[in-house]
Design brief:
The complex is a heterodimer of chains A (about 350) and B (about 350). Chain A has about 350 residues and is α/β, with parallel strands linked by helices. Chain A is about 40% helix and about 25% strand. The mean pLDDT of chain A is about 90. In chain B, helix 5 packs across helix 8 and helix 11 packs across helix 13. The chains are: A alpha/beta (about 350), B mainly alpha (about 350).
Chain lengths: ~350, ~350
């Protein structure tokens, strides 16, 4: 296994209650009142309840849930666009909630950048000025940020569009500007609030590929909000599933697929194409001694690939390789078992 | 014997009533009529029961004030406050008098062959449209040709000064309103009142406060009347700015100042300009009424038409005002359209 990366952002016991007197309502919640009870008795809405998540440096954490699950509320706590009712948001060990106005602004300018569902570009500025917005806000002179903004525009494939205005661009192109804007800020953390949800499916796939490609190169700490499971599984190093303001399950996506902890998750993952999502590494055994090997497969191949390779023969056995090194054995029988969704423990 | 005698008797207030000043002050018309008719009218059948108004109650109980006491009281209160108000307001508003006087002097004293090209250049500068420049030229030449040039320049001078001051104060007030819901709640009824108060009513207290020879008298009346739309539309424009864009500005660490000047005002500009357009139109409407209190310009000729029943004079001057209204509207609308096109609309966001 690779070494665990250091924790970049850590959310501790985060609660958010909407209403007139959230502090009093919090006491009730801590005493065990449920979300529906709280709404009925106190007219307060429990937005987030006891959220604990560790996000590691250079990893992509996808927070997913259906609408109303509190995911967009949660991401706005990272840079305090929304104030929590109680809890801690630690970024590099510093509690964001303890920052005064000036230091919070510094955090938003230098440490975190954000990409929005509806792009939220400045309509009265050119694409180039939009890309350079973060640095211009910091007071960097135009001559300094312009080449950098131009470089990132080129990187996201919009090199020739610098002088256009956002409304002259398609949705996908506008979101590329949004990503360039976040990258030009040179922040280590990128918050992406349903960044691709407003795009057409094909464009969305393109953008996901772009993000994966950028991430391979830049190793940013990305927090990605999504309501789309396929998207979440494609991007996530760490997957957090949110329901009604509660974390139902979190962990490595493959692990969640193979070991759903809850009927809700089961239902959630019931419809996906497991053969395409599950990887060999999640199904193999560490055993290297067995013989009668039919061939070699890569640990990161998906099961669909192996199924095609085997020609449907369920008795075969493959050697699993990572690079040039053998790391385990894959039994076709185990593979077929993994394709059947598991009941929650 | 008045209709409400019984009521006061029933309440046991007869003593208190007779304590009031009985019949001091001039006699009211109704009392005079009753007296000449001789004797008291018969105290009423149920059907002729009058409204329990101040005057009717006074007839039964002298301790009640009459309605004319109310209007008299208002007048006296205003007159007693007048000197204090004057000490405060006079120096404050003095610059307005200077501005109006100088502007009118400037626009009428400059020879026409300099003034007209200057105005056309200004039109080109804000509208960047030759057809609008042509329209303005045609309108001004028409006015000059029928010897209404000086009056038109006076009217324009007044409008320029008043609209400028409206924008100068209206935009900041609108911005303040957009940032504070409480201020908005306080200001809205005031703005409603300014907008619905009949234009003539503005003039009444102002006549008492300032000398009729002072230009600021009509200046203030015009400004009070015309400032409303620019305030309202600035407030509205800033509140209508896309919330997602504001959130993005926050997320990238903009200060309030950067947000206001870099995002909110630029995006609200089309609405603010629409407010400026309305403000100019309303100044023009008021400038005619203000001629009652010595505002010079085309309004004076309209007034002459009414007073002396000079039909032709009034109609030509009225037509001149329409021409001014058309060119002012077209020029501001053209600059608004230019703003929209170059800075893009909200379509994209």
């Amino acid at each position: 296994m690779t070494m665990e990366k250091p924790v970049k952002i850590s959310i501790r016991h985060l609660y958010k209650i909407f209403g007139d007197n959230p502090k009093a309502a919090l006491a009730d919640v801590l005493a065990g009142m449920s979300k529906s009870e709280l709404l009925a008795k106190r007219q307060h809405v429990l937005g987030l309840s006891d959220i604990n998540i560790d996000m590691r440096q250079g990893e992509t954490t996808v927070i997913m849930g259906l609408s109303g699950s509190g995911k967009s509320t949660l991401i706005r706590h990272f840079n305090r666009l929304i104030e929590p009712t109680s809890g801690e948001v630690l970024v590099d060990g510093t509690d964001v909630l303890s920052l005064d106005e000036g230091r919070l602004r510094d955090l938003r300018r230098k440490t975190m950048s954000m990409v929005f569902q509806k792009f939220a570009l400045l309509p009265h500025h050119t694409v180039l000025a939009n890309a350079g917005m973060a640095q211009a806000t910091q007071g960097v002179p135009r001559a300094s940020w312009e080449p950098e903004a131009q470089r990132w525009l080129e990187r996201v494939g919009l090199g020739g569009y610098g002088t256009r205005y956002p409304h002259q661009l398609s949705g996908g192109m506008q979101q590329r500007v949004g990503i360039a804007r976040a990258l030009t800020s040179n922040s280590g953390i990128m918050l992406m609030d349903e960044a691709f949800s407003a795009l057409d499916p094909l464009i969305r796939t393109d953008m996901q590929d772009l993000l994966i490609e950028l991430q391979r190169e830049l190793h940013k700490t990305i927090i990605f909000i999504s309501h789309d499971l396929d998207e979440a599984l494609k991007l996530a190093d760490h997957l957090v599933i949110l329901k009604d303001g509660i974390v139902v399950q979190q962990g490595e996506p493959q692990h969640i697929l193979l070991n759903p902890s809850d009927p809700y998750i089961e239902a959630f993952i019931g419809d996906i194409n497991r053969a395409r999502v599950l990887r060999v590494r999640s199904v193999m055994t560490d055993d290297l001694t067995s013989d009668d090997i039919a061939g070699q497969v890569n640990a990161d191949d998906n099961l669909e690939h192996v199924l095609a390779l085997s020609g449907g023969d369920a008795t075969r056995r493959y050697r699993v390789m990572r690079g040039d090194k053998p790391v385990g054995t894959l039994e076709m029988a185990a593979l077929i078992r993994a394709l059947v969704p598991k009941r929650a423990a | 014997m008045a209709s409400y005698d019984g009521l006061f008797k029933f309440l046991g207030l007869t003593d208190w009533c007779s304590g009031g000043d009985q019949g001091s002050g001039p006699m009211s018309m109704a009392a005079l009529l009753a007296q000449t008719k001789g004797g008291s009218e018969e105290a009423g059948s149920f059907w002729s029961m009058p409204l329990p108004s101040l005057d009717n109650l006074h007839a039964a109980c002298a301790a009640f004030p009459q309605t004319r006491d109310l209007t008299l009281g208002l007048e006296r209160a205003f007159l007693s406050a007048r000197d204090v108000l004057r000490v405060v307001l006079d120096p404050l508003t003095q610059p307005l008098s200077w501005m109006l006087r100088e502007m009118i002097w400037l626009m009428t004293a400059t020879p026409w062959f300099i003034m007209l090209p200057l105005l056309l250049a200004l039109t080109w500068l804000v509208s960047r449209s030759w057809s609008v420049v042509g329209l303005v030229a045609a309108a001004l030449v028409t006015l000059a040709f029928v010897d209404h040039y000086t009056e038109a320049m006076q009217t324009l001078a007044i409008i320029f000064v008043c609209a400028f001051i409206c924008v100068l104060f209206g935009v900041p007030i609108g911005i303040a309103m957009s940032r504070s819901d409480r201020l908005q709640r306080i200001m809205t009824p005031i703005l409603d009142m300014l907008q619905t108060l009949p234009a003539f009513v503005y003039l009444i207290p102002l006549i008492f406060l300032f000398s009729v020879t002072e230009p600021k008298l009509y200046g203030i009346a015009i400004i009070l009347y015309a400032i409303v739309p620019v305030i309202r539309l600035t407030d509205l424009g800033i509140r209508l700015v896309d919330r997602d864009v504001i959130e993005a500005a926050d997320a990238f660490g903009m200060t309030k100042r950067q947000k206001l000047f870099g995002v909110q005002i630029p995006l609200a500009l089309p609405n603010i300009m629409a407010g400026v357009n309305q403000t100019i139109m309303m100044s023009l409407a008021m400038v005619v009424i203000a001629s009652l209190v010595s505002a010079p310009g085309l309004g004076v000729l309209v007034l002459r038409g009414i007073r002396n029943l000079e039909l032709g004079v009034g109609l030509v001057a009225g037509f001149g005002i329409v021409l001014l209204a058309i060119i002012l509207d077209r020029v501001t609308k053209a600059s608004l359209a230019r703003l929209d096109a170059s800075k893009s609309s909200r379509r994209g966001a």
